[in-house]
Write a structure and sequence with these properties.
The chain is of the alpha+beta class. The chain is built from 11 helices and 8 strands. It starts with a helix and ends in a 9-residue tail after the last helix.
């Protein structure tokens, strides 16, 4: 696993170099720093992922290398959006851990959940995935706060965004979890929902922290996401108890 992470780091930096129109091996050495490893560099060459050209030390990604690096960058920047927009944590650190542990299908599921974002929080472009090319690229939100759901309507919980662990544990104890189907019965004076056969009263603050799939998306993105992530939103990514300060 450590060698894979090392390889991914070189591929990632070479992608950044391409974005910045740089291609010297000296620049790559500078970006990698004191951890530059000739063995890793030679391994990438032997696997035909990078190409070293000319006497000036020009290094570039091959076509094969670009495909691999593109997926690494896509996973990293999608993770930055996920942590920044939904989990509220240290998106850079979280993204670095994330990019080495998920496959392309999971990245596409998260991209779909987020509405196919075009840029990371730094303003850098997120490479398109198959899910983006299949999409009509609508800007409508895939998920909405429970407070925006119409009375009498049912929805599926997408995720829960809490300010502290106390709120999180309370909601979890009520069986309100990602993938659970709920129905909204009233909004005033308190929100009342039906969940797992029980009626539950919620204050406005907690209700606003529960995000559900919007009615028109419930049978598409919601099913796609949960069909591929049986553990649910928190469990599938290991963020349940580490959503902040990463």
């Amino acid at each position: 696993m450590k060698r894979k992470e090392e390889r991914d780091e070189y591929m990632e930096q070479l992608w950044y170099m391409k974005e910045n129109q740089k291609d010297s091996i000296d620049e790559l050495r500078k970006l990698i720093g004191e951890n530059f490893n000739e063995e890793v560099f030679n391994e990438l060459q032997n696997n035909q992922l990078i190409r070293l050209q000319g006497t000036g030390g020009k290094v570039t990604l091959t076509v094969k290398g670009e495909i691999e690096a593109r997926q690494i960058i896509r996973a990293h920047r999608i993770a930055e959006r996920l942590v920044s927009d939904i989990l509220g944590g240290d998106f850079e650190k979280g993204a670095c851990e994330f990019e080495h542990t998920v496959n392309s299908e999971m990245v596409d599921s998260i991209c779909t959940l987020l509405g196919h974002p075009g840029e990371c929080p730094h303003g850098k472009p997120i490479p398109e995935g198959d899910c983006c090319r299949r999409s009509d690229k609508t800007v409508r939100a895939s998920v909405i706060p429970l407070t925006e759901l119409e009375v009498g309507h049912s929805a599926r919980v997408a995720y829960v965004q809490c300010k502290n662990d106390q709120q999180l544990h309370r909601i979890d104890g009520l069986q309100i979890r990602p993938g659970t189907d709920i129905k909204l019965h009233q909004k005033y004076p308190t929100f009342v929902i039906e969940c797992e056969g029980a009626s539950i009263a919620l204050g406005t603050e907690i209700a606003s922290n529960i995000r559900v799939w919007s009615q028109e998306r419930k049978g598409t993105e919601a099913d796609l996401f949960y069909g591929r992530n049986k553990a649910g939103f928190w469990g599938g990514f290991g963020f349940r108890h580490r959503r902040r300060g990463r």
